[in-house]
């Protein structure tokens, strides 16, 4: 009786209705009749059942009698509890209630722990599903970022290639301009040498011209003097061969 009271204080079970036959070969209790003989003694385990167990379709339990209300047990634990209750009734009907007096609190504790484990398992399953969703989202984000990084790397490689190609083209242009500059410098040097030679040639020609001009002036001067002398001789009666004088005049004219 004391063990049953402890069990009732820890757990209030709503179990499936008790079958009409209590034990194998036992008589069925008519509707509205009093409980069987093994449930009548006050303080016995069966009396505790009568006070703490109500017949219902499902199974609920309450850890604290002063708590907010009963909590639904899992379907699996509910079915198991109904089967155990029916087996207890069969044993009590065949033997005596003291047969299950020590077993009852252990079964209650096992059912409590089993329901707690089932609830924890359900919570774990929910958490696992949430973690799977998070993992899928992270994986999707990772794949997206990986694709973006790949695109960025490809663009960077293309940029480096274009920069390298542009650098090569600029280098080729610089080398061509340097070659052209060297050619122009060489031409300028050749032109400077040519100008220098032309200037020297011009100076020589000027010297020759000045010499010829001086000689021409001197010849004209001599010729004028000669004409004056010839004219003077003619006036004084002297003679001078005229053809020779004319030939000299023609030479002087040709030099001038």
Task: Explain what you see.
By secondary structure, the chain is mainly alpha-helical. Helix content is 72%, strand content 3%. The chain has 5 helices and 4 strands. The strands form 2 sheets. Strands 1-2 form a two-stranded parallel sheet. Strands 3-4 form a two-stranded antiparallel ribbon. Helix 1 runs parallel beside helix 2. Residues 1-70 and 240-246 have low confidence and may be disordered. Residues 128-215 form a coiled coil. This is RH1 domain-containing protein. Keywords: Coiled coil. InterPro entries: JIP3/JIP4, RH1.
| Series of secondary-structure elements, N-terminal to C-terminal | HEHEEEHHH
How much strand content do the residues show? under 5%
Spatial ordering of strands, largest sheet: 1-2
Structural class: mainly alpha
Distance between the termini: 169 Å
Helix content: over 70%
Radius of gyration using CA atoms only: 70 Å
Rounded mean pLDDT is 73
Number of helices: 5
User: What summary fits the major beta sheet?
Assistant: 2 strands, parallel
Sequence stretches where pLDDT stays below 50 over 5 or more residues: 1-70, 240-246
The total strand number stands at 4
3D shape: rod-shaped
Pfam family, one: RH1
Coiled coil: 128-215
Keywords: Coiled coil
Domain RH1: 60-148
């Amino acid at each position: 009786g004391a063990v049953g009271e402890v069990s009732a204080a820890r757990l209030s079970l709503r179990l499936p209705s008790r079958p009409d036959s209590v034990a194998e070969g036992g008589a069925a209790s008519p509707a509205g009749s009093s409980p069987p003989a093994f449930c009548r003694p006050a303080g016995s385990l069966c009396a505790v059942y009568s006070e703490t167990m109500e017949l219902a379709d499902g199974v609920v339990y309450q850890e604290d009698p002063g708590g907010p209300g009963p909590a639904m047990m899992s379907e699996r634990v509910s079915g198991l509890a109904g089967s155990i209750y029916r087996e207890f009734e069969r044993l009590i009907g065949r033997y005596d209630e003291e047969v299950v007096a020590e077993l009852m609190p252990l079964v209650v504790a096992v059912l409590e722990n089993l329901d707690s484990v089932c609830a924890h398992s359900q919570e774990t399953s929910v958490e696992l599903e949430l973690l799977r969703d998070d993992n899928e989202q992270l994986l999707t984000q990772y794949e997206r970022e990986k694709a973006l990084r790949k695109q960025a790397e490809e663009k960077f490689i293309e940029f480096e290639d274009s920069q390298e190609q542009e650098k090569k083209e600029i280098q080729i242009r610089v080398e061509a301009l340097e070659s052209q500059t060297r050619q122009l410098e060489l031409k300028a040097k050749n032109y400077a040498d040519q100008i220098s030679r032309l200037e020297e040639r011009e100076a020589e020609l000027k010297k020759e011209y000045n010499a010829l001009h001086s000689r021409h002036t001197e010849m004209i001067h001599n010729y004028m003097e000669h004409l004056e002398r010839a004219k003077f001789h003619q006036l004084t009666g002297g003679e001078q061969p005229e053809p020779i004088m004319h030939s000299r005049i023609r030479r002087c004219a040709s030099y001038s």
